[in-house]
């Protein structure tokens, strides 16, 4: 039951609605509860990586234009060196932008998403233990301080939501047929 929920509803929701990048397969951590590892992508990382690739293409074009045979006029040697310097500068900046984008992508906030099926029994102690274990696994992996989300297939009671707030867990549950943050 738990695998069906996380595989068929939880993971696609994370991709399409929450916009997070899932890393790895769901793992069972309790009866009817799976844990999914994910990262919250940073928009700047994608922009820097894309800008770096475009800049490398521009640098290659500038260097190819600078490598053309010189004409027999006096300004040709100076033009060739200016093109080469521009190509090297653009290339260096592009590589730096791409590297910065990859670094931002790797340091993105980590998530431990607990996908709870309808049959999951999450009492006070079990929810606290699951959240603590998930945070411990995130720190053992040397990830930056991670967040814990709970995605429940069944509606959450107000007591459960209050307890989750106390444990700093973001809760998502079905509201009018759609999974939304509660």
* Overall strand count: 7
> How many DSSP H or I helices?
5
Helix and strand content put the structural class at alpha/beta
Task: Determine the fraction of residues in helical runs and give it as a percent range.
Answer: 40-55%
Cα gyration radius (Å): 25 Å
Q: Averaging pLDDT over every residue, what do you get?
A: 79
pLDDT below 50 for ≥5 consecutive residues: which ranges?
none
| Assembly of the depicted chains | single chain
Ends apart, CA distance between termini: 23 Å
Q: What is the H/E order?
A: HEEEHHEHEHEE
Estimate the global geometry from the Cα principal axes: elongated
Tell me about the largest β-sheet.
7 strands, mixed
Assess the beta-strand content as a share of residues. 15-25%
Name its key features.
7-stranded mixed sheet; 54% helix; alpha/beta; 182 residues; single chain
Descriptive report:
Helix content is 54%, strand content 20%. The chain is built from 5 helices and 7 strands; from the N terminus they run αβββααβαβαββ. The protein has helices spanning 2-18, 43-66, 76-106, 124-140, 158-166; strands at residues 21-22, 27-30, 33-39, 110-116, 147-152, 169-175, 178-181. β5 (147-152), α5 (158-166) and β6 form a beta-alpha-beta unit. α2 runs antiparallel to α3. The radius of gyration is 25 Å and the shape is elongated.
């Amino acid at each position: 039951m738990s695998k069906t929920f996380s595989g068929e509803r939880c993971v696609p929701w994370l991709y399409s609605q929450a916009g997070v990048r899932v890393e790895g397969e769901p793992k069972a951590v309790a009866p009817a509860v799976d844990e999914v590892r994910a990262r919250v992508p940073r928009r700047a990382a994608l922009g820097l990586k894309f800008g770096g690739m475009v800049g490398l293409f521009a640098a290659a074009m500038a260097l190819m234009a600078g490598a053309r045979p010189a004409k027999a006029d006096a300004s040709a040697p100076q033009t060739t060196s200016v093109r080469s310097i521009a190509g090297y500068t653009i290339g260096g900046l592009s590589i730096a932008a791409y590297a910065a984008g990859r670094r931002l992508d790797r340091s993105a906030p980590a998530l431990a998403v607990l996908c709870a099926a309808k049959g999951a029994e999450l009492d006070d102690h079990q929810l606290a233990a699951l959240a603590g274990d998930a945070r411990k696994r995130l720190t053992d992996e040397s990830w930056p301080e991670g967040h814990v989300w709970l995605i429940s297939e069944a509606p959450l009671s107000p007591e459960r939501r209050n307890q989750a707030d106390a444990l700093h867990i973001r809760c998502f549950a079905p509201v009018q047929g759609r999974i939304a943050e509660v």
